[in-house]
Amino acid sequence: SQQGEEDPQALSIQEGENATMNCSYKTSINNLQWYRQNSGRGLVHLILIRSNEREKHSGRLRVTLDTSKKSSSLLITASRAADTASYFCAPAGWAGNMLTFGGGTRLMVKP
Amino acid sequence: GAGVSQSPSNKVTEKGKDVELRCDPISGHTALYWYRQSLGQGLEFLIYFQGNSAPDKSGLPSDRFSAERTGGSVSTLTIQRTQQEDSAVYLCASSPGDTATYEQYFGPGTRLTVT
């Protein structure tokens, strides 16, 4: 199975700044998904980037994927206090169907 | 439309008791997943159902854990003879298909506390 490892483990920024989180994984993937979790409860899907894509945008989110380095990054631009959450990456392999999540990046955006 | 729902939202039980956690997936989603998350940790995969296929139970931590999915819809996760280390948030997710194509939609979770 795949497992994403997020870096940094924790990030604290001021409102309005950009936040960048990184994800590394070890084996070949079909796609990579990013999720957000507020208050230790359910996760919300943010974006899915396929292995043949290099960059994808969704609102203030920008995700990049470098399959040669087995890494992905999530950029949140013009952050808001409401972006405070934990962010997880989940690489999806070609076989098998579970997602394996790492420990996440805990983002705190200070107003 | 309605999202994934889970019940109960919180459950406190005594060590040694059995518990049942319920998940109602999004209507029409063929795939259903159970994960658990210990305090401040990532998600640990438990079990996966896809349509009428045999479930992938590779993540169940012990034989005290079991799950079923009736009629391809509602799922129940059962933990027998609960232990304190079973305390965690149990998350259910559903998906229109496999992860090669689709994202997962998560429920709010059940917080299990074993005293």
Brief sketch in words of this structure:
The complex is a heterodimer of chains A (111) and B (115). Helices cover 0% and strands 53% of the residues of chain A. With 111 residues, chain A is mainly beta.
Keywords, please?
heterodimer, A: 111 residues, mainly beta, Immunoglobulin-like, 5-stranded antiparallel beta sheet, globular, B: 115 residues, 6-stranded mixed beta sheet, 4-stranded antiparallel beta sheet
Characterization of this structure:
The complex is a heterodimer of chains A (111) and B (115). With 111 residues, chain A is mostly beta strands. Chain A has a single domain, classed as Immunoglobulins (Immunoglobulin-like). In chain A, the strands form two sheets. In chain A, strands 1-3-8-7-6 form a five-stranded antiparallel sheet, with no helix packed on it. Chain A has a five-stranded mixed sheet with strand order 2-10-9-4-5, with no helix packed on it. In chain A, a hairpin with a 5-residue loop joins strand 4 and strand 5. Chain A is globular and about 40 Å long. The mean pLDDT of chain A is 90. The termini of chain B are far apart. With 115 residues, chain B is mostly beta strands. Chain B has one domain: Immunoglobulins (Immunoglobulin-like, Sandwich), CATH 2.60.40.10. Chain B is globular. Chains A and B meet through strand 4 and strand 5 of A and strand 4, strand 5, strand 8 and strand 9 of B.
